[in-house]
Amino acid sequence: MTDLDLKTSTTHPAPPGVRGGWRTPDRLYRLISSPLLRMILGWDLPRRDLRVISRRTGSVSLEVGSGGGFYTAALKTHLGSENDLIALDPSPSAMHSLKHQLDGRPGARMSYVAGDGCKLPLADDHADTLFYGYSLEEMPDPLTAIREAHRVLRPGGELVLFLWRPVFTRHRRRPVIALLDELFERRRTSAGPQNIRLVYRKH
């Protein structure tokens, strides 16, 4: 464990809310999705990073905050043709562009949804895996987003979060981690100077 406040404490109760993050403008998606730039900034390598996500035949996975698709293509390949992947982002233009980019590529069966990460357009207990690739910290209400993740994830399902540490400061992060640890069982943690990566299981 590091100094990232990833272990919750009962000594200092978490504040009731978390300030929303800065939303990446559509015009910057291409820039921030550049593999070279992402590698320089955070050592992100999609095919390697996504190995933490389990593959189960017949599963439904939801990528919340697909944006410019930095992880989506690798996630589609990783999950394979026996599974379904829903890419979700509040930007319709980003989803249109991503569909154009990925249509015809081998891998998971794709759906593209322009939707709100704080109000997921899925039924209760619907998804087997939820993946947030540096998107939770951009949402206007991360705590509501986590409660929505708990609602749509089936019992035994997997929640995978990659958090961008410089943006998701300790003050903002602490109540989110506390809620995650309350609602889910933490299975894996890794943390470095740029990234925090967490894997949870729904009870």
Unreliable segments (pLDDT under 50, ≥5 consecutive)?
1-5, 7-16
Q: What overall form do the CA principal axes indicate?
A: globular
Mean of pLDDT: 86
Strand content: 25-35%
* Proportion in helices: 25-40%
**C-alpha-based Rg, rounded:** 16 Å
Description:
By secondary structure, this protein is α/β, with parallel strands linked by helices. 30% of the residues lie in helices and 26% in strands. A seven-stranded mixed sheet has the order 3-2-1-4-5-7-6, with helices on both faces. α6 links the parallel β4 (127-133) and β5. α6 runs parallel beside α7 (170-183). Residues 1-5 and 7-16 have low confidence and may be disordered.
SSE topology:
Layout: H1 29-32, H2 35-42, H3 46-49, E1 60-64, H4 72-79, E2 84-89, H5 92-102, E3 109-114, E4 127-133, H6 142-152, E5 153-164, H7 170-183, E6 184-191, E7 195-202
Parallel strand pairs: 1-2, 1-4, 2-3, 4-5
Antiparallel strand pairs: 5-7, 6-7
Helix pairs in contact: 6-7
What labels describe this entry?
30% helix; alpha/beta; 203 residues; globular; single chain; disordered N terminus; seven-stranded mixed β-sheet
